[in-house]
Amino acid sequence: MHKNSLAFLRSLFFHFITLLVLFCGSILPDNIDGQMQQAGSYYRNGEFDKAIEIYEDLRSQGYEGTSLYFNLGNAYYRIGKIGYAILNYERALKISPTDDDVKHNLAFANLSTVDRIQPLPTFFLFEWWETLLASFSVNGWTYLAYFFFILLLILVVIYFFAKTVFQQKLILFSGLAALVILLITVSLLIVKINREQTLISGVVIEQSITVKTSPDPQSTDAFVIHEGLKVNLEDRLDEWIKIRLADGKVGWVENKAVEKI
């Protein structure tokens, strides 16, 4: 029993260190923090183009973060580039799905778009599932899975040191509940990862696009969409991308007209 307890404690320590490393990795280096502050200063002074230049430079270096995309979206909105504003709000929301400020600004920016697409009706259980899935990002579901995994390990360790039958039963039921939630969380994490790999979305960044029936500029015009509309990206052929709207309409546009979220 003593050896098993030590093994559990070692495992618990390992996962604690893993979470600590993940947390430390989220702290901004001084140079990035300085650039973010400089961009913020430009934004407050109304120099939105200069702020955008710094934010885009950080993004080109591989830095990503909710604050970066949120501030970049705000700057683009201020200069009237609704498509790029919505694009960056969507990127921020992808990282932090529960951020109220991001959701508010995205909804506000969407009021400036031309297209009003009515999505296809779905069964309420599917809507509930999608809402649950969208509650956290991949990182969020990962942290949640770690939390319940560590909680389960702690409960197992405590179980071996419980002094009464009542305590053992209480810990056992708590452990079973933690296990069930852990399995559900891991399942949602797997679905979320698979969804992000297979379901790719983008935003229209040109003011107006004539969508074609095939990847050919001489093909028949299908319909017209406008800046800021969110679409699904389904296929790519040379310089063309196949898109699908929320109402089920499908067509082809040049890839320069749409940018991936």
Report mean pLDDT, rounded to a whole number: 87
What's the number of helices? 9
Helix and strand run: HHHHHHHHHEEEEEEE
Distance between the termini: 51 Å
Alpha-beta classification = alpha+beta
Q: What's the story with the biggest beta sheet?
A: 5 strands, antiparallel
Shape: globular
CATH architecture title of the largest domain: Alpha Horseshoe
Q: How many domains is the backbone divided into?
A: 3
Strand order of the largest sheet: 6-5-4-1-7
Q: CATH H level of the largest domain: which superfamily?
A: Tetratricopeptide repeat domain
What does this 3D model show about the protein?
- By secondary structure, this protein is of the alpha+beta class.
- The protein folds into 3 domains: 24-110, Serine Threonine Protein Phosphatase 5, Tetratricopeptide repeat; 123-198; 200-260, SH3 Domains (SH3 type barrels, Roll), CATH 2.30.30.40.
- The chain has 9 helices and 7 strands.
- It has helices spanning 2-25, 30-44, 48-60, 66-78, 82-95, 100-110, 124-133, 138-161, 165-198, and strands at residues 200-204, 208-212, 221-226, 230-237, 240-244, 250-254, 258-260.
- A 5-stranded antiparallel beta sheet has the order 6-5-4-1-7. A two-stranded antiparallel sheet has the order 2-3.
- Helix 1 packs antiparallel against helix 8, helix 4 (66-78) packs antiparallel against helix 5 and helix 8 (138-161) packs antiparallel against helix 9.
- It is globular.
- The N and C termini lie far apart (51 Å).
- The model has no long low-confidence stretch (mean pLDDT 87).
